[in-house]
Amino acid sequence: MVLRKFELEAKLKDDTQLIQNGVLRNEHPFDTSPEFHNFLMACRRGDLKRCQELISEGININGKDAYDYTPLIIASLCGHYELVQLLLESGALADPDSFERERAVYNALNNKIRNLLLSYDYSKTADPLQYWSTHITSLLSREIPPTSDITLSAPSEDFHLHKFILSARSPYFRRKFAEAPDTTTWKLSHNIPVEAFRIVLRYLYLGDLPRDFVTPRSAVTEEEVFKGIDKLCKQLEIDKLWEAVLSNDRRLARQRQQDEVARAQGQISAFFRDTVLKHKIEVDTRKADQVKWPQHNAIFANVLLQADEELPEDDSASDNSAPDNKDESPTPNGGIPIGPAASCSKPPTTFPKVKPRRSVLYPAHKPFLIRSPYFATMFASPFLESQPSDYLHTIHVDCTPPVLEVILSYLYTETSTCPLEHALELLYASDMLLLDALKSKAAVTISTLGSGNTNALVDRTHHHPDGSSSVQKVEQEPINVYDVIHAAWDLGVQRLEEFGARYLASRLEDYIDEPEFHDLIQESASRLKSREETDTIELLDDIRYYLGERFRLRFEGEGLEEMLDEEHLQDEGEYEGLDMEGPDVGLEELAMTMGEGDAGYVGNGDEVIVEGVDREGDEDKRGENGEREGQGVVTLDGVVVEDEFASDAVNYHILVEKIDRMLEKLKLDA
Amino acid sequence: MASRNRPRPIRRPLINKEAGGFDQCWATLQSAMTDIHNKNASKLSFENLYRASYKITLVKRGEDLFNKVKEFETEWFHNHIIPGVDELVRNNLPSIALIQMTTSSSHERREAGERLLRGIRKIWEDHNTSMNLIADMLMYLERSCAETKQASVYATTIGLFRDHILKYGLKDVDGSDQPFIIMDVVIAVVLDLINMDRDGDIVDRNLLRDITGMLEQLYETDEEKENEKLYTTIFEPRFLTASEVFYKAECEKLLRESDAGSWLRHTRRRLLEEEERCVTSVSNFTKDNITGVVEKELVLAKMDDFLAMEGSGLKAMVDNDREEDLGILYQLIARIDKSKSTLKTNLQSRVMELGLEIEQTLKNTDFSTPTAAGASREAEDGTEGADKPKALSPAAQQTAAAIKWVDDVLKLKSKFDTLLENCFSNDLVIQSAITKSFADFINMFERSSEFVSLFIDDSLKRGLKGKSDEDAEFVLQKAIVLVRYLSDRDLFERYYQKHLGRRLLHNKSEIHIEKELVRRMRAELGNHFTAKFEGMFKDMELSKDLSTNYKDHIRNLGDDDRKSTELAIHVLTTNFWPTDVMGRGVLQDGDASRADCIFPPSIKRLQESFYKFYCQDRSGRVLTWVPSTGSADIKCYFPKVPGKDSGPLSKDRRYELNVSTYGMIVLMLFNDLSDGESLSFEEIQLKTNIPVSDLTKTLTSLSVPPKFRVLAKEPLAKSVKATDKFSFNAQFVSKQIKIRVPVISSTSKVEGSEERKETERKNDQTRAHVVDAAIVRIMKQRKELSHTQLTTEVISQLSGRFKPDISLIKKRIEDLLAREYLERMEGDTAAYRYLA
Lengths: 670, 836
Fold this sequence. Notes:
The complex is a heterodimer of chains A (about 675) and B (about 850).
Chain A: H1 5-20, H2 34-45, H3 48-57, H4 71-78, H5 81-89, H6 99-107, H7 111-119, H8 122-125, H9 130-139, E1 150-153, E2 158-161, H10 163-169, H11 171-179, E3 185-187, H12 194-204, H13 222-236, H14 240-246, H15 250-277, E4 281-284, E5 303-308, H16 315-328, H17 339-342, E6 358-364, H18 366-369, H19 373-380, E7 394-396, H20 401-413, H21 420-432, H22 436-449, H23 468-473, H24 481-491, H25 494-506, H26 508-511, H27 515-531, H28 538-552, H29 561-570, H30 587-597, H31 599-603, H32 605-629, E8 633-634, E9 640-641, H33 644-666
Parallel strand pairs in A: 1-3, 5-7
Antiparallel strand pairs in A: 1-2, 4-6, 5-6, 8-9
Helix pairs in contact in A: 1-6, 2-3, 2-4, 4-5, 4-6, 5-7, 6-7, 10-11, 10-15, 12-13, 15-20, 20-21, 21-22, 21-24, 22-25, 24-25, 25-28, 28-33, 30-33
Chain B: H1 21-37, H2 46-58, H3 62-91, H4 93-97, H5 106-137, H6 139-147, H7 153-166, E1 169-170, E2 180-181, H8 182-198, H9 205-217, H10 230-257, H11 260-280, H12 287-300, H13 303-307, H14 314-319, H15 323-336, H16 341-364, H17 372-381, H18 383-386, H19 394-422, H20 428-444, H21 448-463, H22 469-485, H23 489-505, H24 511-525, H25 527-557, H26 579-582, H27 584-588, H28 601-614, E3 631-638, E4 653-660, H29 661-671, E5 678-680, H30 681-688, H31 692-703, E6 711-714, E7 725-728, E8 738-740, H32 753-782, E9 784-786, H33 787-798, H34 806-818, E10 822-825, E11 828-834
Parallel strand pairs in B: 4-8
Antiparallel strand pairs in B: 1-2, 3-4, 5-7, 6-7, 9-11, 10-11
Helix pairs in contact in B: 1-2, 2-6, 3-5, 3-7, 5-7, 5-8, 5-9, 9-10, 10-12, 11-12, 11-15, 12-15, 16-19, 16-20, 19-20, 19-21, 21-22, 21-23, 22-24, 23-25, 24-25, 32-33, 32-34
Organism (chain A): Triangularia setosa
Keywords (chain A): ANK repeat, Repeat
GO molecular function (chain B): ubiquitin protein ligase binding
């Protein structure tokens, strides 16, 4: 459903009106900062990597520039499907009721993007924190696994609550619990009706406030409840509750709820940093099991998570140093003193010359950990971890400390920024913890950032005069594509499989001759065969597909091949110096003529290939030369052809040929 | 070669992928599973176990792990559980023996059965807990199973319980070769316990619930299809069959030993019990099915037998107003059958029976003496009843019969209304059924239309004077109820018109009540039905105005001559009023026309004067004088009788006599006579030209009853004969000054059979015209129509007035064909075309 133009204009007017009246918040603020400008430029180019970087730096994804463009509109206008997807997944607003969504749909370059936009309805984008806040609300009533560490008891009802959340949300509780961290029960005042408590608690736990504060059965009047709420607001220092209680307009209430959730997220993030991250303990791995925390501690942690550093390269060295380390650690009663004050007394950081394997222990809170089904089951089942004990259980998580921090930050606050170097590990770890959302985030990180410095998957056989090619020359591969594909297979991440295939296709000339690549193809083939009898090799099919896309993309769509072909015969000379946006040419035909023209390539099989490989290193130089001379370009096998179309054609054929040759060698049928 | 330099900054994950890991991990898991079964789970680290299963699954050996787990569990069953089960069942042999229904005391049986079930429950619960833990432990594998749409670990391992325990066959029991399947034993025990529960023993319901709950959690296959629960596929059918057997026996026992009332109560209790059982002992899913069984076996199977029971069946319930029984009966039947056909037909036939009974009693009752009903009515009336003659005239007898009939019908109606409200929760189906039966038997009674009209007549004339509006309202309601049932409404209309005409002319009833009644009839039956009645009311009003205007007119003329005679006139529109009132019936007989009735000259002058006045604004109208329905006030002067010194006769007496118009004409004759002269009947007839029958009535009323004997008759006999002579009765005396001489013909009475035939004949004639009109109306609109369609349409058009006879319609069509309103279609004789 796309609105008509006049409807669109009417909608804009309505939206503006509402914003001017202060009814609605402007969700697309005007933004003139250079960063935002860069962001929009990246959106124009379709630069996935840059966009992802900017988004993770926290750029306002819903801002608009002087021409009322939002990133989403730009991206759909310029036809970058992946980018549109990324923007939507990262929280670009596509509220079906909004002018901006309609405009993006209106402007979408093709139907694919248009349908993508239409398929994103409000529920998917409205509130990235929705699951997080729902989880917190559910803690109020959730009984399995038991996570509550404090009971507030009113005369008629007991509330099982969480000190961590209460402290984070209310300054009053924070002070009280700081004074007496081992409180486990709390008598509530008789003077305040229990209904008022219930509402205050729902507010603290981010739940919806009930429409009617007093049920017909309750013994108190609405006024008394209001008074009670008022008193509690003052006492607990949560003045915003009044606004919540008083707002009754639905749209406003929604907006308020969003604000409140965002505020709560801020509070909990801050508290998370203050408690969990500040109190992490770095110890020698061997001594990690000696760390003891009592159950009731000042930061209300009820479990310890352990993550080990990477194994040092030299195992024997760490073995030797272990005994020394043991002697040095100041562990009075076999454990480490606890509490915020005591936590400064980490083991002294005097390391022997050979560094032993280190571990980091994070104090954590069950209410948040159980967002992972892994932890939820762990604490719900009657295994060792859920048994009561004097000291906190230490749970080993199979990943490095930085990755664990990313995971914790995600569990506590829903925010996660994952640097590329940890992405693959995060992928595995979140898979193990059964955190699907985080897993797909890691996959997105890899598939967007992992594609090199410049525009994703750009064809490197084309060289731009702006000099970026010289940067590319010394580029380090940001990822190990073999690992990525293996991870994709291990964990069943379709997105990464596709990404791997695209990646390989875009620089096949670099990989085609590597033995690892051959092994990979072999593995892909065996993967399939073990599943079912089939002749296709999935990975190779994908590579072929993307290869085709890489070379043919520019030639599709115009349907003028024949006409152009005639022109081509009449006036070959005109093609010289045409840039990429020039008229299209019937590629196949061109390739045929060119290919056949080149006797050496067709005739001499292996030799040519070898030659091609050898010359690859020179291609850039040659390319530059070619461009300088304005005399066409060099193909992979080093032959100079008239222009880029010709070179594409030849290159394509060379690569396909190579694939076939490889398959022959591997004795695979495909 | 810079671009070939590809450092790989991403660390490989920590997971150890060595193939050797599998055995090691499996060993960990295996020992953990043993611990779990031994309830040592709290010593196990979830973290480690999960990691082990995770590792295995990650290297794609999940399937191997899956199979190993299955193997382990199977072995565990064989080594640790089955011996215990075997022993358990063998030790509780009595409960096995119950399959053969050998005799053992129910107490023993129950003890043994419960022991067995407790044992099974314990094994099941242990297994279930263990399997939950194992499924938790293998969570990662569970996930990958879900992705590949395989049956989950939990489902499979739970399924093992079914395969290895429940389907385990116990051999060599009781010396029979057939192995006992544990599941059969368990179910048999459960069913036996349930039956004991039904018989009133106290059994452990929670235990039963747990066992059925177990069957609910197990499926036929590991795919866990929702409709393949063991509970649904195996237990429930057996449970239902067993219940069927149980209730069939119980029902027969009830039929032998109890009456319908206790049957109803028992059934209701059983239904509640079974519903409760679905909460306490078996699954709630079975609720509909088990209550279905009870309904089928206890209610439906022998319902007809119970309903027909002498002394407690439906008849007795209805007759004795056993509302509770009927209420239960209704609830039970409503559960089974939405249309409630059994109850409906039974009630309908009962209504018919009772209705026909009323008719029967009517025929057998002798109305020559006032019946109980009549007596009570008269008692209500008070003054009038006291000095009524003991023996009623035949006409009055008929009236009494009509009133009794109506009373009985109304009583019956109110009885069923009460039942409907109290027992059948005003069920619409039942209500319409009863209504239909009422209509049926009322219409079967051929005189119903007349009786209803008579009843209304009687009530309005006699009953309502001096009664409150509420009573009037009550009568009106009853009247409407009855009218609603009538199907030959045109016949009723005819009677009602007749009766209403008399009431209006003789001013016998209160006009506002009459109007109210007609208004209600209009609401019930439609405009066309009441058009004539309303016309009659209108005539009455116009006439009243007319009379006053005429009076004014006379006064303005200042003509003193006619001062002595006042005229109150009713100008009646011919169409609105019944024909016999208008005297047309007489005309058709070719008898002497009423125009020949000779009025005394003074009256004649009055008539002429009025006609002149009337035609002042309405020229061209013809007024016909109808003396048969009018009345006149005459002032009579009786001189004192000579020779009487005392008593009333000694004085001059003046009386005001209210007599019929005919009576007035007759009396006026005697003005011209001198004392002692007399007139013979024939002379009077000759002088007045009053029809013989009317004259007889008039003279009877003036000469026979001693109270009104203004004329002396010779000879003194009760009936008036043509040879009698009449003279002025100077000795007449009365306590009242104003004397109302009753007009015999004004009393509405039931028609004699000949009269009725006459009425029906007239009615049929009218019907023929109405049918004609309907046919022509329809054909004019449709142009062409088949015979059957035409018939249906005619019937539907006329259904508001009467139910036309098919043969009548056919006759009318033929008639219309002959008169060339219609023609038959060529080639299709069963269709007609309208001829314009």
